[in-house]
Specification:
Layout lengths: L1 H23 L20 H9 L19 H12 L4 H12 L4 H13 L3 H12 L8 H13 L3 H13 L6 H14 L2 H12 L7 H10 L4 H14 L17
Helix pairs in contact: 3-5, 5-6, 7-8, 7-9, 9-10, 9-11, 10-11, 11-12
Length: 255
């Protein structure tokens, strides 16, 4: 019995001395894997102790939702509620009165940005109309740009024209990218007349014109030679050093 008690006492005592000696003096042969097995890791004593201290304590290493730091809980709940009631107009309007209108300025902007990120374009436009009615609202061409481009890519051209008219009333002029996407959207939508209206608006813009909207029109107006020739003449006057590719006459339907 005495020998057993002494052996039980010696084992933790000797193990503590062994660990203390390892920490004080580095051993010649480390029990960790070699450098060939773990690339870019040095096996010195300090590095070895640093590696031993690295462990997972069970806590999450980051937010599970990537936008957690950019949007508050109340704004996030509003986004979820808008998506839940988007197919029920009556419940949607009640939700707007009870939850959306009580949001602060930054929360409303965060909700608008999150709806755009999730490609909920119709809800984003509705949220923008709510923001327009607030006392702190100021026209911003970049907000219009994001919404118009998202609507044009979704080929919701009726809503594009509504925002376009609203932008004109607030004396906001889009940039070249906005013109390009709207013109491309109308051409895909099968409405060259509306594309030409946007083109005329682009020519009256105070910003200098760029080539891309012209080339989009020249390509999309191939079935409409009269409209294309008008755009071609303007292009040659504004960009005299640039070349235009004219396809064979068979493409225009001329034999």
């Amino acid at each position: 019995m005495a020998s057993r008690a002494i052996s039980r006492w010696k084992i933790p005592y000797l193990s503590a001395i062994f660990v203390r000696n390892i920490m004080r003096t580095p051993t010649q042969e480390s029990f960790l894997p070699s450098r060939s097995m773990i690339p870019q890791v040095e096996c010195s004593s300090d590095k070895t102790m640093w590696i031993l201290k690295q462990y997972h304590d069970g806590r999450p290493r980051g937010p599970l939702w990537r936008g957690k730091k950019l949007i508050g809980k109340e704004a996030l709940s509003v986004v979820l509620g808008l998506k839940r009631f988007k197919n029920d107009e009556e419940k949607l309007q009640k939700f707007i009165k009870s939850h959306v209108l009580r949001l602060l300025k930054m929360d409303m902007i965060a909700v608008l940005s999150e709806l755009e990120r999730q490609e909920e374009v119709s809800l984003a436009v509705m949220m923008f109309k709510v923001i327009q009615k607030q006392d702190w609202y100021k026209p911003d061409v970049f907000v219009y740009k994001d919404l118009i481009i998202a609507l044009a890519r979704s080929q919701k051209m009726d809503e594009v024209m509504q925002l376009w008219e609203s932008m004109k009333k607030e004396n906001q002029f889009p940039d070249s990218q906005t013109y390009t996407e709207v013109i491309r959207g109308f051409l895909k939508y099968g409405s060259p007349a509306d594309a030409m209206n946007v083109y005329e608006h682009m020519k009256n813009s105070p910003d200098p014109p760029e080539e891309l909207p012209f080339r989009i029109l020249l390509k999309g107006l191939l079935p409409y030679p009269l409209l294309r020739n008008k755009v071609k003449q303007d292009f040659e006057e504004i960009f005299p050093d640039q070349n235009i590719y004219d396809p064979p006459e068979e493409i225009f339907g001329v034999r």
